[in-house]
């Protein structure tokens, strides 16, 4: 794919990924076929900030985990009052990373 | 961190272990009426959360008081069922070196997010929550 398109994609979606993943994503994007551009630009990523806000407000109900697509862990969190409150606090700090990981998994389907 | 088979199994076994120890501990303590609440919602807002009462429900289930268990929190039935089923299934997977539980988990995880399941579940949980608040758990 053209470097210009790749840069545009990187700039627009910078906040959805970890900084150390960006290099890998850039390399893969340059390598992939141009025909994937339409699909790539239409992927809906989950916003880490949104999941952080949800985690702070409704973390003990597991809503944050449901939001990023981990419904199994969401059920676990819901049934245990947010993992006895401990998991809730851990997730306040972990949920942004988890969201970015989910975004990476999502984009990887299109990169290989 | 992607949830691989072994990580998921370790996590669930740990969760079950913590669950069993907590229920046993709480059942020993329950005679003294000295419950302390881990629940965030209950300790900050002084209203019960959707899963408050699950421990009492599990203790009632263990004693064979099925009506009481239903009264404390119907979710106790689900948790009790999972606490018995999950360790057995995971051990079975380890023995036969299969990943049937992991596959089932990923399938259910994706299914649960479908619209036809999400809305009924939310409605049931909200009704249960309302009942919890009315009971004043």
Number of structural domains of chain A: 1
Give the rounded overall mean pLDDT of chain B. 83
Count the domains of chain B. Answer: 1
Oligomeric description of these chains: heterodimer
Mean pLDDT over the full residue set of chain A:
86
Radius of gyration of chain B: 17 Å
What class, by secondary structure content of chain B?
A: mainly alpha
List SSEs of chain B in N-to-C order: HHHHHHH
Helical segment tally of chain A?
8
Count of DSSP helices of chain B?
A: 7
**Global shape of chain B:** globular
Strand content of chain B: under 5%
Distance, first to last CA of chain A: 14 Å
Question: What is the 3D form of chain A?
Answer: elongated
- Main β-sheet description of chain A: none
List keywords for this structure.
heterodimer; A: 112 residues; mainly alpha; 8 helices; 75% helix; B: 137 residues; globular
